[in-house]
Design brief:
Layout lengths: L1 H4 L2 E5 L2 H5 L2 H13 L3 E4 L10 H5 L1 H18 L3 E3 L2 H16 L1 H13 L11 E3 H9 L1 H6 L9 E4 L9 H4 L11 H8 L3 E2 L18 H17 L4 E4 L2 H9 L1 H8 L7 E3 H8 L4 H4 L9 H6 L6
Helix pairs in contact: 3-15, 5-6, 5-7, 6-7, 8-11, 12-14
C-alpha cells in the first residue's frame, strides 16, 4: 500500500487499550508521533471478535474482520495494532480471505447486504513493533533516544499470538525458535535483554475465566522466572499480556505464596521513557508495579 510506505497506517488499538490498558494506547501514539508515524483512527471499527465469536460462528467472525479490513482499504492504508490477539485474529482472517476466492465472495455478499463496501483483499496487518523494526528501522528509533536505559536489564515477553502459527506470520516478529523484534528494540534504547525460557510462551490470559489458579501460576511464573534471571523490568507488545502479567501479579503472588515485585509495562512505554516522553503521557502512574526506582537506579530521567 502506497500510503503505508509513507508511514501512514489505519490504527486499531483493540478493546483492551481503549478501556483497561489505556496507557499502551497513549504511549503508542506518543512514540509514533516522535517517529513521524501517522496513526489514523478507525472510528467505525468494531471488536475483532477474538475467541468466542470464532468458536460460535466462524462466518460471522470473518465478516466482522472483513468489514474492518474494508475500512482500512478504503482509507488506503494497512492496519497497525498493539494487541497480539487482534493481530492473530486479523492474520488468520486475512490469510483465508486473500487465498480463498469463493470464501471472500461469500463474505462480501454478507457485507453488501449490510450496506458495507466489499473487501478487495489488498491490505496487510502489522504489529506496531514490526513497523518500528521493519518499516522504520531500529537505527531511527535509536536516534530518538535521549535518556538511554544504561544497561537496564529488560525481560521481553513476546506472548504467543504474535509468533504462532509460523505459517501465518512467516517469521515476522521472530520465530518460536528465536524471537527477535523486542530484543532489537531493547538494545536500541540502551537496555540489556534478559533471556529466559518463558519469553515466547502464553501469558495464560485466555484461561483466566476457566481456571484462575492455573492462569495465575502461569502468568506469575513467567514474571518470577524473569526476575530470577536478573530482570529489572518485563515488557510486552500485547495489552492482554500486560494485563495478565502486570495487573494480576499481586494476585499471582498470593496464589504462589511468593513475592515477585517485577515491574511490567508495554514496550511502547519503555521506548517512550527512553525518548524522554513525560511519565503522564506514557501512563507510568497506571502501572501496577512502580518502575520509577529501576529507572532511577539506571539514571533514566523521567519528567
Amino acid at each position: 500500500m502506497g500510503l503505508s510506505k509513507n508511514l501512514n497506517y489505519a490504527y486499531y488499538p483493540g478493546c483492551a487499550a481503549k478501556q483497561i490498558q489505556k496507557e499502551a494506547d497513549w504511549s503508542a501514539r506518543a512514540i509514533a508521533d516522535k517517529l513521524d508515524i501517522k496513526l489514523h483512527d478507525m472510528p467505525a471499527a468494531t471488536c475483532c471478535g477474538a475467541g468466542k465469536m470464532q468458536e460460535h460462528d466462524l462466518a460471522a467472525a470473518l465478516a466482522v474482520n472483513a468489514r474492518i479490513f474494508s475500512q482500512a482499504e478504503e482509507m488506503g492504508m494497512d492496519i497497525v495494532t498493539i494487541c497480539n490477539t487482534c493481530l492473530q485474529t486479523f492474520a488468520f482472517a486475512n490469510e483465508r480471505l486473500k487465498n480463498e476466492p469463493e470464501l471472500l465472495e461469500k463474505i462480501n455478499n454478507v457485507l453488501i447486504k449490510a450496506g458495507v463496501r466489499p473487501y478487495e483483499g489488498t491490505i496487510d496487518v502489522k504489529h506496531l513493533v514490526w513497523v518500528l523494526v521493519d518499516d522504520i528501522g531500529v537505527e531511527k528509533v535509536k536516534k530518538h533516544v535521549s535518556t538511554p536505559l544504561n544497561g537496564m536489564k529488560v525481560a521481553p515477553f513476546y506472548g504467543c499470538h504474535s509468533l504462532r502459527p509460523n505459517e501465518i506470520f512467516n517469521g515476522r516478529g521472530g520465530t518460536i525458535a528465536g524471537p527477535a523484534y523486542l530484543d532489537k528494540l531493547i538494545a536500541a534504547i540502551g537496555g540489556e535483554e534478559v533471556d529466559y525460557f518463558g519469553k515466547d510462551k502464553c501469558c495464560g490470559f485466555h484461561t483466566m475465566l476457566e481456571n484462575e489458579k492455573d492462569f495465575l501460576h502461569m502468568s506469575g511464573g513467567h514474571a518470577q522466572e524473569a526476575k530470577q534471571a536478573g530482570a529489572d523490568v518485563m515488557v510486552s507488545p500485547c495489552t492482554l499480556c500486560d494485563m495478565a502479567i502486570g495487573a494480576y501479579q499481586s494476585r499471582a503472588e498470593k496464589v504462589m505464596g511468593e513475592k515477585i515485585g517485577l515491574p511490567e509495562m508495554n514496550i511502547t512505554q519503555l521506548i517512550g521513557a527512553a525518548m524522554g516522553i513525560d511519565s503522564k503521557t506514557l501512563g507510568l502512574n497506571r502501572l501496577h508495579q512502580d518502575i520509577r526506582p529501576a529507572l532511577k537506579q539506571y539514571q533514566v530521567e523521567i519528567r
